[in-house]
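Lecture 7, part B: from sequences to assemblies.

Below are the input chains for today's worked example.
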Amino acid sequence: MEQTYQHARQLVAVDCIIFGYEDADLKVVAFQRKLNPGRGAWSLVGGWVNHDESVEEAAQRVLHEITGLENIFLEQVEVFSKIDRDPGDRVISVAFYAFMRIGQQDKKLVEEYGAHWFSLRELPELVFDHQDMLDKALDKLRRKASYQLVGSELLPDRFTLLQLRKLYEAIYQRELDPGNFRKKVLGLGILRQLSSKDMSESKKGAYYFKFKKAGTGQNMERIIKL
Amino acid sequence: MEQTYQHARQLVAVDCIIFGYEDADLKVVAFQRKLNPGRGAWSLVGGWVNHDESVEEAAQRVLHEITGLENIFLEQVEVFSKIDRDPGDRVISVAFYAFMRIGQQDKKLVEEYGAHWFSLRELPELVFDHQDMLDKALDKLRRKASYQLVGSELLPDRFTLLQLRKLYEAIYQRELDPGNFRKKVLGLGILRQLSSKDMSESKKGAYYFKFKKAGTGQNMERIIKL
DNA sequence: AATATAAGAGTGTTTTTTACTTTTAAAAAT
DNA sequence: ATTTTTAAAAGTAAAAAACACTCTTATATT
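Predicted structure of the full complex, as structure tokens:
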């Protein structure tokens, strides 16, 4: 069953826009390229696609190699394939965005690979077409988050509605009304309220919430209007 | 600048879900595969990606080769890359959906290539993962059409609001209120009313409309609620 | 015990969506 | 020539969603 087809073969890569959330700000991982062309330039995390893996598996592998984490949340963005997008060779790249908590789990990424978390506004110039990838990824994330509640992979295991709202404000770069956000989000019925409270932000204390186990609900209701 | 990177290379293909519109029904092109594996099975239109073209260019080329048309409306759906998706070899395929008017322009496609237009409901079983591709394409089309008015590439050059509404009804497989549809669509301000009328559907006659030149408006307003 | 804070609940207005009804233009039938 | 018929086109009214606020509450801090 091998080599049935005779045709030119291509280098295929994956590039990951790794989103994180810290200090009420959406952040992205970039690191300085080790090889030429573009050595030293800021780059997204990427790697080659092997014969024995799908592009999703390749992305998971690449992320595993540099973080040690498994089963990272991933979403395909799109294929970037202009013939001269990488001056080194003709490389077809599939872009993904990923969610990762900033903190312990990304240690390897940060310490061994010299990766940096950049806030969206203070991002340096990126190599090749990586800025395009990021723009498209943000677009896609915003669209997704507008009709599905996202955040379980970015926020701590339990979180307050303030934290969730701040995350949404970071994603959309605009303020959201606390009362209306609460009403909307709780109305979806996909959060479970815990009995414990976070007392750090107010005197009254805000209840912690958790996402009900994944795959529940998410019935295409609109969360915010774009 | 060539061969800078040493890594396994992959067969990369494009597969196109070609949508057409006829008899108030959304249709799709399928044809019977010429080669093994899967010879004789119904398949989407596809082809290989060459070294000197992007995946978009490859899709345009493939569509040009079998229809003679140029500048076909194309939208990337996603990458399908399960290692065993094609039993002949490991093939990474980028799926696109395309819009094409049913009639003259697809003659070559139909006559030389033995392609068939199938209504969505009477589609035969498709080879490999082509049904998945179609499902994802429909999903993406529906989402797009919900906040951007689509159809200029599917409808005749000038069309009535009835025709446009019927197209939307075909896309969403549900009825839409005529008055509300008209109000919404005209409110977008991207259609230009002509002075001529179509008299075939009613005694009163329905004005023809045209899309204002492409790229106008399309300001993310919601057209229909999913 | 009083104060201050943000959580949490509530309220009224505006906008959008949805479901209908009425009027209109013009061909076809009487 | 008038009436009938058809779907277009315009209009209306109720329901739902989105939005902009205010008020009350729990509790750490003063």
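Note for the exam: The beta strands of chain B are 11-22, 25-32, 42-43, 45-48, 73-80, 91-99, 116-119, 191-198, 206-211. Keep this in mind when comparing with the next example.
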